[in-house]
From TrEMBL:
<dbReference type="GO" id="GO:0042545">
    <property type="term" value="P:cell wall modification"/>
</dbReference>
<keyword id="KW-0063">Aspartyl esterase</keyword>
<dbReference type="InterPro" id="IPR011050">
    <property type="entry name" value="Pectin_lyase_fold/virulence"/>
</dbReference>
<keyword id="KW-0378">Hydrolase</keyword>
<feature type="domain" description="Pectinesterase catalytic">
    <location>
        <begin position="33"/>
        <end position="329"/>
    </location>
</feature>
<dbReference type="GO" id="GO:0030599">
    <property type="term" value="F:pectinesterase activity"/>
</dbReference>
<comment type="pathway">
    <text>Glycan metabolism; pectin degradation; 2-dehydro-3-deoxy-D-gluconate from pectin: step 1/5.</text>
</comment>
<dbReference type="InterPro" id="IPR033131">
    <property type="entry name" value="Pectinesterase_Asp_AS"/>
</dbReference>
<dbReference type="GO" id="GO:0009279">
    <property type="term" value="C:cell outer membrane"/>
</dbReference>
<dbReference type="Pfam" id="PF01095">
    <property type="entry name" value="Pectinesterase"/>
</dbReference>
<dbReference type="InterPro" id="IPR000070">
    <property type="entry name" value="Pectinesterase_cat"/>
</dbReference>
<protein>
    <recommendedName>
        <fullName>Pectinesterase</fullName>
        <ecNumber>3.1.1.11</ecNumber>
    </recommendedName>
</protein>
<comment type="similarity">
    <text>Belongs to the pectinesterase family.</text>
</comment>
<feature type="active site">
    <location>
        <position position="196"/>
    </location>
</feature>
<dbReference type="GO" id="GO:0045490">
    <property type="term" value="P:pectin catabolic process"/>
</dbReference>
<dbReference type="InterPro" id="IPR012334">
    <property type="entry name" value="Pectin_lyas_fold"/>
</dbReference>
Length: 340
Protein backbone atom coordinates (compact mmCIF):
# COMPACT_ATOMS: atom_id res chain seq x y z
CA UNK A 1 0.00 0.00 0.00
CA UNK A 2 2.84 2.42 0.86
CA UNK A 3 4.51 1.80 -2.50
CA UNK A 4 1.24 2.41 -4.32
CA UNK A 5 0.72 5.65 -2.39
CA UNK A 6 4.24 6.85 -3.24
CA UNK A 7 3.70 6.12 -6.93
CA UNK A 8 0.37 7.99 -6.86
CA UNK A 9 1.97 11.00 -5.14
CA UNK A 10 4.85 10.97 -7.61
CA UNK A 11 2.43 10.96 -10.55
CA UNK A 12 0.48 13.86 -9.05
CA UNK A 13 3.70 15.83 -8.50
CA UNK A 14 4.85 15.09 -12.06
CA UNK A 15 1.56 16.31 -13.55
CA UNK A 16 1.69 19.46 -11.39
CA UNK A 17 5.29 20.10 -12.50
CA UNK A 18 4.35 19.75 -16.16
CA UNK A 19 1.49 22.25 -15.72
CA UNK A 20 3.87 24.74 -14.07
CA UNK A 21 6.41 24.37 -16.86
CA UNK A 22 3.69 24.98 -19.46
CA UNK A 23 2.44 28.04 -17.63
CA UNK A 24 5.91 29.56 -17.35
CA UNK A 25 6.64 28.75 -20.99
CA UNK A 26 3.75 31.03 -22.01
CA UNK A 27 4.83 33.82 -19.72
CA UNK A 28 6.48 36.69 -21.54
CA UNK A 29 8.58 39.60 -20.46
CA UNK A 30 6.72 42.01 -22.72
CA UNK A 31 6.47 45.57 -21.53
CA UNK A 32 2.78 46.54 -21.68
CA UNK A 33 1.43 49.94 -22.75
CA UNK A 34 -2.30 50.61 -22.97
CA UNK A 35 -3.82 53.17 -25.32
CA UNK A 36 -7.39 54.25 -24.64
CA UNK A 37 -9.29 57.27 -25.91
CA UNK A 38 -11.16 57.58 -22.61
CA UNK A 39 -7.97 58.30 -20.68
CA UNK A 40 -8.05 55.03 -18.73
CA UNK A 41 -4.84 53.74 -20.31
CA UNK A 42 -1.25 54.96 -20.29
CA UNK A 43 -1.84 57.19 -23.34
CA UNK A 44 -4.73 58.47 -25.42
CA UNK A 45 -2.97 58.31 -28.82
CA UNK A 46 -1.08 55.54 -30.58
CA UNK A 47 1.80 57.87 -31.47
CA UNK A 48 2.36 58.68 -27.79
CA UNK A 49 2.70 54.97 -27.10
CA UNK A 50 5.13 54.48 -30.01
CA UNK A 51 7.21 57.40 -28.75
CA UNK A 52 7.44 55.72 -25.34
CA UNK A 53 9.00 52.53 -26.76
CA UNK A 54 12.67 52.28 -25.88
CA UNK A 55 15.06 52.69 -28.79
CA UNK A 56 16.92 49.51 -29.73
CA UNK A 57 15.33 47.43 -26.99
CA UNK A 58 15.34 43.66 -27.51
CA UNK A 59 12.46 43.32 -25.04
CA UNK A 60 9.19 43.48 -26.90
CA UNK A 61 6.78 46.28 -26.10
CA UNK A 62 3.14 45.26 -26.44
CA UNK A 63 0.90 48.23 -27.13
CA UNK A 64 -2.73 47.30 -26.40
CA UNK A 65 -5.16 49.59 -28.20
CA UNK A 66 -8.66 49.79 -26.79
CA UNK A 67 -11.64 50.03 -29.14
CA UNK A 68 -12.04 53.37 -30.87
CA UNK A 69 -11.33 55.37 -34.00
CA UNK A 70 -7.87 56.92 -33.74
CA UNK A 71 -7.49 59.66 -36.33
CA UNK A 72 -3.77 60.27 -36.37
CA UNK A 73 -0.76 60.08 -38.65
CA UNK A 74 1.74 57.68 -37.10
CA UNK A 75 5.47 57.16 -37.54
CA UNK A 76 7.36 54.15 -36.15
CA UNK A 77 11.01 55.30 -36.34
CA UNK A 78 13.78 52.97 -37.48
CA UNK A 79 15.39 53.25 -34.03
CA UNK A 80 12.53 51.61 -32.12
CA UNK A 81 12.81 48.18 -30.50
CA UNK A 82 10.49 45.24 -31.06
CA UNK A 83 6.81 46.26 -31.08
CA UNK A 84 3.51 44.39 -31.02
CA UNK A 85 0.55 46.66 -31.78
CA UNK A 86 -2.63 44.83 -30.76
CA UNK A 87 -6.21 46.01 -31.06
CA UNK A 88 -9.39 44.51 -29.66
CA UNK A 89 -10.68 43.58 -33.12
CA UNK A 90 -10.33 45.14 -36.58
CA UNK A 91 -13.98 46.19 -36.73
CA UNK A 92 -13.76 48.54 -33.75
CA UNK A 93 -10.05 49.35 -33.44
CA UNK A 94 -9.33 51.68 -36.34
CA UNK A 95 -6.33 53.88 -37.15
CA UNK A 96 -7.23 56.34 -39.87
CA UNK A 97 -6.09 59.50 -41.61
CA UNK A 98 -7.04 61.31 -44.82
CA UNK A 99 -3.86 62.53 -46.53
CA UNK A 100 -3.37 62.02 -50.28
CA UNK A 101 -0.53 62.51 -52.76
CA UNK A 102 -1.72 65.77 -54.31
CA UNK A 103 -2.40 67.43 -50.96
CA UNK A 104 -0.20 70.48 -50.46
CA UNK A 105 2.37 70.82 -47.70
CA UNK A 106 3.08 74.16 -45.95
CA UNK A 107 5.46 75.08 -48.81
CA UNK A 108 2.71 74.57 -51.36
CA UNK A 109 4.19 71.38 -52.81
CA UNK A 110 2.47 67.98 -53.15
CA UNK A 111 3.15 65.69 -50.21
CA UNK A 112 3.48 62.82 -52.71
CA UNK A 113 2.49 59.15 -52.55
CA UNK A 114 4.99 58.33 -49.81
CA UNK A 115 3.95 61.30 -47.71
CA UNK A 116 0.26 60.34 -47.89
CA UNK A 117 0.52 57.26 -45.65
CA UNK A 118 -1.53 56.96 -42.47
CA UNK A 119 1.22 54.95 -40.75
CA UNK A 120 4.93 54.72 -41.59
CA UNK A 121 6.68 51.58 -40.31
CA UNK A 122 10.43 52.15 -40.61
CA UNK A 123 11.50 49.87 -37.74
CA UNK A 124 12.36 46.18 -37.79
CA UNK A 125 10.51 43.52 -35.78
CA UNK A 126 7.08 45.15 -35.94
CA UNK A 127 3.88 43.13 -35.55
CA UNK A 128 0.24 44.23 -35.61
CA UNK A 129 -2.91 42.25 -34.78
CA UNK A 130 -6.64 42.93 -34.81
CA UNK A 131 -6.47 46.49 -36.22
CA UNK A 132 -7.87 48.33 -39.22
CA UNK A 133 -5.48 50.72 -40.96
CA UNK A 134 -7.32 53.18 -43.17
CA UNK A 135 -6.74 56.01 -45.57
CA UNK A 136 -10.12 57.73 -45.57
CA UNK A 137 -9.39 60.41 -48.21
CA UNK A 138 -11.61 58.72 -50.82
CA UNK A 139 -11.08 58.56 -54.58
CA UNK A 140 -8.50 61.32 -54.87
CA UNK A 141 -5.63 59.43 -56.49
CA UNK A 142 -2.71 57.90 -54.60
CA UNK A 143 -3.49 57.65 -50.89
CA UNK A 144 -1.54 55.13 -48.78
CA UNK A 145 -2.88 53.52 -45.61
CA UNK A 146 0.28 51.63 -44.56
CA UNK A 147 3.92 52.03 -45.64
CA UNK A 148 6.61 49.56 -44.55
CA UNK A 149 10.36 49.75 -45.13
CA UNK A 150 11.63 47.80 -42.13
CA UNK A 151 12.34 44.07 -41.93
CA UNK A 152 10.57 41.19 -40.16
CA UNK A 153 7.13 42.83 -40.22
CA UNK A 154 3.98 40.79 -39.59
CA UNK A 155 0.25 41.45 -39.60
CA UNK A 156 -2.49 39.09 -38.42
CA UNK A 157 -6.23 39.64 -38.62
CA UNK A 158 -5.83 43.22 -39.82
CA UNK A 159 -7.73 45.25 -42.41
CA UNK A 160 -6.14 47.66 -44.90
CA UNK A 161 -8.73 50.09 -46.21
CA UNK A 162 -8.37 52.54 -49.06
CA UNK A 163 -8.56 52.99 -52.82
CA UNK A 164 -5.45 53.66 -54.93
CA UNK A 165 -2.11 52.57 -53.41
CA UNK A 166 -3.57 51.24 -50.15
CA UNK A 167 -0.56 49.16 -49.08
CA UNK A 168 2.95 50.37 -49.91
CA UNK A 169 5.60 47.74 -49.21
CA UNK A 170 8.30 50.24 -49.97
CA UNK A 171 11.33 48.26 -48.88
CA UNK A 172 14.48 49.40 -50.68
CA UNK A 173 12.58 51.40 -53.30
CA UNK A 174 14.69 54.56 -52.80
CA UNK A 175 17.89 52.94 -51.50
CA UNK A 176 21.13 52.41 -53.39
CA UNK A 177 21.73 49.10 -51.60
CA UNK A 178 19.06 46.82 -53.08
CA UNK A 179 20.17 43.80 -51.01
CA UNK A 180 18.76 45.09 -47.71
CA UNK A 181 15.87 42.75 -46.78
CA UNK A 182 12.34 44.01 -46.17
CA UNK A 183 10.22 40.95 -45.38
CA UNK A 184 6.50 41.22 -44.66
CA UNK A 185 3.94 38.59 -43.67
CA UNK A 186 0.16 38.93 -43.76
CA UNK A 187 -2.05 36.25 -42.23
CA UNK A 188 -5.87 36.26 -42.29
CA UNK A 189 -5.93 39.89 -43.43
CA UNK A 190 -8.30 41.89 -45.62
CA UNK A 191 -6.84 44.31 -48.17
CA UNK A 192 -8.98 46.45 -50.44
CA UNK A 193 -8.43 49.01 -53.14
CA UNK A 194 -8.82 50.08 -56.75
CA UNK A 195 -5.51 50.70 -58.53
CA UNK A 196 -2.09 49.20 -57.66
CA UNK A 197 -3.38 48.75 -54.14
CA UNK A 198 -0.55 46.41 -53.16
CA UNK A 199 2.72 47.81 -54.48
CA UNK A 200 6.42 48.31 -53.81
CA UNK A 201 9.82 46.65 -53.59
CA UNK A 202 9.36 44.58 -50.44
CA UNK A 203 9.06 40.82 -50.19
CA UNK A 204 5.65 39.78 -48.87
CA UNK A 205 3.53 36.71 -48.27
CA UNK A 206 -0.25 36.99 -48.09
CA UNK A 207 -1.58 33.79 -46.54
CA UNK A 208 -5.30 33.07 -46.17
CA UNK A 209 -6.05 36.70 -46.97
CA UNK A 210 -8.94 38.37 -48.77
CA UNK A 211 -7.82 40.70 -51.56
CA UNK A 212 -10.81 42.82 -52.54
CA UNK A 213 -11.02 44.87 -55.74
CA UNK A 214 -13.55 47.64 -55.20
CA UNK A 215 -15.81 49.12 -57.83
CA UNK A 216 -13.74 50.81 -60.60
CA UNK A 217 -10.67 48.68 -59.71
CA UNK A 218 -8.08 48.01 -62.42
CA UNK A 219 -4.86 46.47 -61.01
CA UNK A 220 -4.29 44.48 -57.81
CA UNK A 221 -0.49 44.69 -57.62
CA UNK A 222 2.35 46.85 -58.91
CA UNK A 223 5.54 45.22 -57.71
CA UNK A 224 8.92 46.92 -58.05
CA UNK A 225 10.95 43.92 -56.89
CA UNK A 226 14.73 44.55 -57.08
CA UNK A 227 16.61 42.32 -59.48
CA UNK A 228 18.60 41.06 -56.48
CA UNK A 229 15.48 39.67 -54.72
CA UNK A 230 14.37 36.11 -55.41
CA UNK A 231 10.81 36.76 -54.26
CA UNK A 232 8.39 39.68 -54.53
CA UNK A 233 4.70 39.28 -53.65
CA UNK A 234 3.38 35.76 -53.01
CA UNK A 235 -0.29 35.04 -52.35
CA UNK A 236 -0.99 31.64 -50.78
CA UNK A 237 -4.49 30.15 -50.38
CA UNK A 238 -6.06 33.60 -50.59
CA UNK A 239 -9.27 34.92 -52.13
CA UNK A 240 -8.87 37.40 -54.98
CA UNK A 241 -12.38 38.79 -55.16
CA UNK A 242 -14.34 42.07 -55.20
CA UNK A 243 -17.28 43.94 -56.65
CA UNK A 244 -15.49 45.47 -59.65
CA UNK A 245 -16.93 44.84 -63.10
CA UNK A 246 -16.51 41.40 -64.60
CA UNK A 247 -13.12 40.88 -66.30
CA UNK A 248 -11.92 44.41 -65.40
CA UNK A 249 -9.01 43.78 -63.02
CA UNK A 250 -5.44 42.63 -63.74
CA UNK A 251 -3.55 40.52 -61.21
CA UNK A 252 -0.57 42.81 -61.59
CA UNK A 253 1.56 45.15 -63.64
CA UNK A 254 5.29 45.91 -63.30
CA UNK A 255 6.14 49.19 -61.60
CA UNK A 256 9.78 48.25 -62.18
CA UNK A 257 11.18 45.80 -64.78
CA UNK A 258 12.01 42.90 -62.43
CA UNK A 259 8.60 42.72 -60.72
CA UNK A 260 7.80 39.31 -59.22
CA UNK A 261 4.27 38.27 -58.23
CA UNK A 262 2.98 34.73 -57.72
CA UNK A 263 -0.44 33.33 -56.77
CA UNK A 264 -0.50 29.86 -55.18
CA UNK A 265 -3.75 27.89 -54.64
CA UNK A 266 -5.83 31.07 -54.80
CA UNK A 267 -9.52 31.48 -55.50
CA UNK A 268 -10.27 34.16 -58.10
CA UNK A 269 -13.69 35.52 -58.99
CA UNK A 270 -14.90 36.95 -62.30
CA UNK A 271 -13.46 40.42 -61.66
CA UNK A 272 -10.09 39.12 -62.91
CA UNK A 273 -9.30 39.62 -66.59
CA UNK A 274 -8.73 36.41 -68.54
CA UNK A 275 -5.30 37.56 -69.72
CA UNK A 276 -4.34 38.06 -66.08
CA UNK A 277 -1.36 40.39 -66.39
CA UNK A 278 -0.46 43.76 -67.94
CA UNK A 279 2.98 44.97 -69.10
CA UNK A 280 2.30 48.66 -68.20
CA UNK A 281 2.94 49.46 -71.88
CA UNK A 282 6.54 48.34 -71.43
CA UNK A 283 7.14 45.41 -73.83
CA UNK A 284 10.68 44.88 -72.54
CA UNK A 285 9.27 44.17 -69.08
CA UNK A 286 7.74 41.00 -70.48
CA UNK A 287 11.27 39.57 -70.63
CA UNK A 288 12.29 40.55 -67.10
CA UNK A 289 9.21 40.21 -64.90
CA UNK A 290 8.18 36.94 -63.27
CA UNK A 291 4.41 36.56 -63.05
CA UNK A 292 3.10 33.11 -62.17
CA UNK A 293 0.25 31.04 -60.78
CA UNK A 294 -0.24 27.55 -59.43
CA UNK A 295 -3.60 25.85 -59.13
CA UNK A 296 -5.73 29.00 -59.39
CA UNK A 297 -9.43 28.26 -58.93
CA UNK A 298 -12.72 30.00 -59.63
CA UNK A 299 -14.27 31.97 -62.48
CA UNK A 300 -11.25 34.29 -62.68
CA UNK A 301 -8.79 31.44 -63.13
CA UNK A 302 -8.11 30.71 -66.79
CA UNK A 303 -4.62 29.35 -67.38
CA UNK A 304 -5.22 28.84 -71.10
CA UNK A 305 -5.96 32.51 -71.75
CA UNK A 306 -3.23 34.13 -69.65
CA UNK A 307 -0.63 36.26 -71.45
CA UNK A 308 2.08 34.15 -73.06
CA UNK A 309 4.87 35.72 -70.99
CA UNK A 310 3.37 34.64 -67.65
CA UNK A 311 3.97 31.24 -66.07
CA UNK A 312 2.02 28.30 -64.71
CA UNK A 313 4.26 26.66 -62.11
CA UNK A 314 4.94 22.95 -62.11
CA UNK A 315 4.54 20.95 -58.89
CA UNK A 316 8.32 20.95 -58.56
CA UNK A 317 8.59 24.71 -59.02
CA UNK A 318 5.80 25.30 -56.52
CA UNK A 319 7.78 23.59 -53.74
CA UNK A 320 10.01 26.61 -53.10
CA UNK A 321 7.02 28.88 -52.46
CA UNK A 322 6.63 28.15 -48.76
CA UNK A 323 6.42 30.71 -45.98
CA UNK A 324 9.59 29.41 -44.37
CA UNK A 325 11.66 29.37 -47.55
CA UNK A 326 10.56 32.82 -48.70
CA UNK A 327 10.93 34.65 -45.38
CA UNK A 328 13.65 32.87 -43.42
CA UNK A 329 16.55 34.86 -44.90
CA UNK A 330 20.10 34.71 -43.58
CA UNK A 331 18.90 35.31 -40.02
CA UNK A 332 16.45 32.36 -40.14
CA UNK A 333 13.44 34.50 -39.20
CA UNK A 334 10.58 32.40 -37.84
CA UNK A 335 7.44 34.46 -38.42
CA UNK A 336 5.47 32.30 -35.96
CA UNK A 337 7.59 33.74 -33.16
CA UNK A 338 6.64 37.27 -34.19
CA UNK A 339 2.94 36.39 -34.05
CA UNK A 340 3.01 34.87 -30.54
Amino acid sequence: MKTSSLIKNFKTFSIFSIILVCLFSFKTNDKIIVVSKDGKGNFITVQQAIDAVENGSETRTKILIKAGVYKEKITVPESKGTILLEGENPENTIITYDDFASKKNPEGKDIGTTGSSTIFIYSNNFTAKNISFENSSGKVGQAVAVLTSGDRIAFENCRFLGNQDTLYLKGVQDLTDKTKPSRNYFKNCYIEGTTDYIFGAGTAIFENCTIYSKETASYVTAASTPQESEFGFVFIQSKIIGNAKEHSVYLGRPWRPFAKTVYIDCEMNSTIKQEGWHNWNKPNAEKTTFYAEFNSKGTGANAGKRVSWSHQLTKQERKKYTTDNILKGKDLWNVKTSLK
